Amino acid sequence: MNRWFAALAIAALFAAPAAAQEAPRWSFAIHGGAGVIERDSLTPQQDAAYRAALHRALEAGSAVLAGGGSALDAVQAAIELMEDDPLFNAGHGAVFTAAGRNELDAAVMNGSDLTAGAVAGLTTTRHPIAAARAVMERSPHVMLIGEGADTFAASVGLEQVDPAFFFTERRWRGLESALRTQNLPIPERPAGAPGPMAEVTLPAPPLNERKFGTVGAVALDSEGRLAAGTSTGGMTAKRWGRVGDVPVIGAGTYASNREGCAVSATGDGEFYIRASVARDICARIATGSATQTAAQAEVDDALALGGSGGVIVMDLQGRPSFAMTSSGMYRGAVSHSQAAGVAIYGDEDLRP
């Protein structure tokens, strides 16, 4: 009789419908840059456009995670979408250097084994985040820069584009304004760029965004793996081959299952580099600090040196945290148990 009941129980277990099985547990968060973002600086149309873009990125990442995909895949999927969106300072829509070029940086890190990849100064690779991951997985290196990084990306089959692909009128006008302020010469429009437009069409935000618009994502997948990724065009009118914090592992991007966190930063990169912000947040968490407390304390300490910005953090329990010293940060989060929510202004809670 006992054998009969045992056999019946086993049969019932394997016959249970898939719907009765526990859904994958996962969590995902993104940012689209931090800065001086006040309610009166965005029109209702611009506000709505940013929220819609954030929701699209959340949908891309959550689709990967809900299907049992990896944290790395979710991070890449969302960031590639934002790299193609001209609202953000990454990929198509990146800011220009003083020489009138788009030079793109990105990094990705896998928290489960501490592997990482980064690129800086890309000019022809459509998706810098894909190039950063390729460096991590398909090269013996951690960081590649400039023409060599683009050559490597092409050699592993990543899509290459004409540099004019990244051009947007809004960012070009931002460059002209910045160069006039600095009494620097304005370069010729890039070859292949469209002719000057009479006006920048909506939903272009104000043209005084000098540094912000960097995009990033952090994720915890159903296998308990953390990952982080960040992508940026840097700062408007940057000179001399300037590279910010984004591709510097431990400054603007970091993930470690051992320490229980994944971090992506946005803001004044020079200060993030000097304070090793992303890595220090993880160190604070590893020593027992609450995630939100660690994130805000580190940002406050680092940016007390100067500048402003913010970070997003994911812990091993799937709890996202957002910390900033600026008046706003484009951000959002979603999980297996929580509907997608986004926010823009510093005093705003996430909402659908």
Secondary structure tally: strands: 12
Strand order of the largest sheet: 4-3-2-6-5-1-11-12
Shape: globular
Q: Tell me the series of helices and strands, N- to C-terminal.
A: HEHHEEHEHHEEEEHHHEEEE
Instruction: Give the low-confidence spans.
Output: 1-20
Instruction: Work out the helix count.
Output: 9
Q: Structural class, please?
A: alpha+beta
Can you summarize the main beta sheet?
Answer: 8 strands, mixed
Radius of gyration: 21 Å
Overall mean pLDDT: 90
* Share of helix, binned: 25-40%
Per DSSP, what share of the residues sits in E-state strands of 2 or more residues?
15-25%
How many angstroms does the end-to-end distance come to? 54 Å
Report on the architecture of this protein.
The chain has 352 residues and is of the alpha+beta class. The chain has helices spanning 2-15, 44-66, 71-83, 128-138, 146-155, 169-181, 269-275, 277-286, 291-303; strands spanning 27-35, 104-110, 115-122, 143-145, 215-220, 226-232, 253-256, 261-267, 309-315, 320-324, 328-335, 341-345. The strands form 2 sheets. An 8-stranded mixed β-sheet has the order 4-3-2-6-5-1-11-12. Strands 7-8-9-10 form a 4-stranded antiparallel β-sheet. Helix 4 (128-138) crosses helix 5 (146-155).
